[in-house]
Design goal:
By secondary structure, this protein is of the alpha+beta class. Helix content is 40%, strand content 25%. The chain has two domains: 151 residues, Beta-Lactamase (2-Layer Sandwich), CATH 3.30.450.40; 133 residues, 2-Layer Sandwich (Beta-Lactamase), CATH 3.30.450.20. It starts with a helix and ends with a helix.
Length: 306
C-alpha cells in the first residue's frame, strides 16, 4: 500500500520528541481553545503520536479506536462537535472511557506524493466548535507540520517553515493580520525585520525574552540588549548573511535590565525583492539558556566518568 510505504520512508515512527513538533501541537491547542492536541501517524495496526500535549499516556493506540484514522481519509478538517452524540463515535472506547473525548478536530497531514501520513488534531473533554479563525489557524499549523515532517533536516526545516511564515507576512493586509494573530499563539518569539537588522514587528514572547517593551525593542532597540562582547559580530553576521541572501542561524548572549545573561537562538528566512536582494527577514527567537546549561552539564559529567 502506497500510503504505508510513504509513511515508513519518513523514518519518523517511534522517534524521540522534537521541539518543532511539540511547539506546533501546543500552539494548536492554545489557538483552538482545547485542553489537548496531538500530531499522529497512522500505521497499519496503530496510531502513534509524535507530539502529545495534554494527553499523557495516549502515545500509541489501536488503529480501530483512533479518530485520526478517519481524518486521513479527508481532504480537509474533520470536526466532531460532540463524539458522544455522533453515531460513528459514540461507542468508541476513547469516548466512553478514558480520556472521555467529546470534541475532536483533525487536519490530515499530506505528503509530497499526495498520501496522508497522519493528522494534527485538537481534543477536548467538552463539546466544542471551532470558529473560522481557529479553523484557518489549524490548517496553517497543519501546513507547518507537513513541512517539518518532510524536512526533518534542521536547516531545511527552518528554511521551509520561515519561508511559509514569510509568504503569509508578505501577502495582502488580511494575511498580515492572520500572521500576527498566529504568531501571538506561539510559545516562541516571532519577529519581522529588514535586511539591515531593523525590526518592524515582534510578538509578546520576544518582549519577554528581552524584558523589553515593543517601543524599546523595535527598530535597532533590540541590539541594546546584546551582550557587549557579542554586539558587533551579531550585527556583522546579519549584514553579511543578508548580502548573500541566506537564512540566519545563530546564538548570542543578551544582557537583561535585571543583570541576568541569557542565551538566545535566532533563526530567520529571507524574503527577496524583485531584483533578488534580501528585503525582509521573518523568523523566531528562543531563550535556550537552560537547554545549553543542561547539555554542558551532561558533557561535563561524561568527561568526568571517562
Amino acid at each position: 500500500m502506497q500510503r504505508l510505504a510513504s509513511l515508513r520512508e519518513l523514518k519518523i515512527l517511534d522517534t524521540e520528541p522534537e521541539i518543532q513538533f511539540d511547539t506546533i501541537a501546543q500552539a494548536a491547542a492554545i489557538a483552538c481553545g482545547t485542553s489537548a492536541s496531538l500530531i499522529t501517524f497512522v500505521d497499519a495496526e496503530r496510531q502513534w503520536a509524535k507530539a502529545n500535549f495534554g494527553l499523557p499516556g495516549l502515545d500509541s493506540i489501536a488503529r480501530e479506536a483512533a479518530l485520526c484514522s478517519h481524518t486521513i481519509l479527508q481532504d480537509d478538517i474533520l470536526e466532531i462537535v460532540d463524539a458522544s452524540a455522533d453515531p460513528r463515535f459514540a461507542q468508541n472506547p476513547l469516548v466512553i472511557g478514558d480520556p472521555g473525548i467529546r470534541f475532536y478536530a483533525g487536519v490530515p497531514l499530506k505528503m509530497s506524493d499526495g498520501t496522508s501520513a497522519g493528522a494534527l488534531c485538537v481534543i477536548d473533554e467538552k463539546p466544542h466548535k471551532l470558529n473560522a479563525a481557529q479553523s484557518e489557524i489549524l490548517r496553517l499549523l497543519g501546513i507547518a507540520t507537513e513541512k517539518a515532517i518532510e524536512g526533518r533536516n534542521a536547516l531545511r526545516h527552518e528554511r521551509e517553515l520561515r519561508s511559509e511564515i514569510a509568504a503569509i507576512a508578505a501577502a495582502k493586509a488580511d494575511s498580515e493580520a492572520r500572521f500576527r494573530v498566529l504568531s501571538e499563539t506561539l510559545p516562541i518569539g516571532v519577529f519581522q525585520g529588514r535586511a539591515d537588522g531593523w525590526l518592524t514587528y515582534i510578538n509578546t514572547q520576544c518582549q519577554k525574552i528581552y524584558q523589553a517593551s515593543v517601543e524599546e525593542a523595535l527598530g535597532l532597540g533590540w541590539t541594546v540588549r546584546l551582550h557587549p562582547d557579542d554586539r558587533a559580530w551579531v550585527l556583522e553576521h546579519w549584514r553579511k548573511t543578508a548580502e548573500v541572501r541566506e537564512a540566519i542561524d545563530l546564538e548570542f548572549r543578551i544582557l537583561r535590565p535585571d543583570g541576568s545573561v541569557r542565551v538566545v537562538e535566532l533563526k530567520a528566512a529571507p524574503s527577496l525583492d524583485n531584483a533578488g536582494n534580501t528585503k525582509t527577514y521573518v523568523g523566531t527567537m528562543q531563550d535556550v539558556t537552560e537547554a545549553r546549561q543542561a547539555r554542558a552539564h551532561l558533557v561535563s559529567e561524561s568527561l568526568i566518568r571517562n
